[in-house]
UniProtKB/TrEMBL annotation:
<dbReference type="InterPro" id="IPR001789">
    <property type="entry name" value="Sig_transdc_resp-reg_receiver"/>
</dbReference>
<dbReference type="Pfam" id="PF00072">
    <property type="entry name" value="Response_reg"/>
</dbReference>
<feature type="domain" description="Response regulatory">
    <location>
        <begin position="10"/>
        <end position="135"/>
    </location>
</feature>
<dbReference type="InterPro" id="IPR011006">
    <property type="entry name" value="CheY-like_superfamily"/>
</dbReference>
<dbReference type="InterPro" id="IPR052893">
    <property type="entry name" value="TCS_response_regulator"/>
</dbReference>
<protein>
    <submittedName>
        <fullName>Response regulator</fullName>
    </submittedName>
</protein>
<dbReference type="GO" id="GO:0000160">
    <property type="term" value="P:phosphorelay signal transduction system"/>
</dbReference>
<keyword id="KW-0597">Phosphoprotein</keyword>
<feature type="modified residue" description="4-aspartylphosphate">
    <location>
        <position position="68"/>
    </location>
</feature>
Amino acid sequence: MSEPVEEPIEILLVEDNPGDVRLTREAFKELSVDVELCVATDGKEALDLLSERRDVRPASVPDLVLLDLNLPRMDGFEFLRKIEEMPPFGQLPVLILTSSTASEDVLESYDLAANAYLTKPTGPDEYTSMVRSVVNFWFEHATLPSIAT
C-alpha cells in the first residue's frame, strides 16, 4: 500500500448481519488507516442517518457507503433509488458488498449507479484483503467528489 491516508475515512456500512459487521470492523482494524465505521442495519436507518447528517452535521457525511442488498425494511436496491433523490447523496460512492452472485443483482446495482459490486468474502483474511483493496483504490488512487450541502 502507498502512503497512509492522513484524514480519517468515514464509511457507512449498511449491513444487518452482526457477523459480517464484526468481520468488516476487524478487517479495517488490521489496516494502518484511520477509519470511522458507522453501521446501519437497513436501508431506512441508513437514509435517516444520511438525512440527519445533511441537515444537522454536513461535515460528517461519509466518504463511502458499503451496502448489502438483502436488508430488512428497505433493501439495497431501494436505498440506491432513494439516495438519487436526496441531494447531494446521488454523488456518494456506493460499493455493493453482498453474498449474491446473481447476474441480475449485479446488473441492477450498476443500473442504479452503484460504483462497484463486491461479493462478500468468507473469512477474516479474505475480508482484510478486500478492505485493503477498497482503501487502496478509493482513498489512495481515486478522486472522490466533494459532497457539499
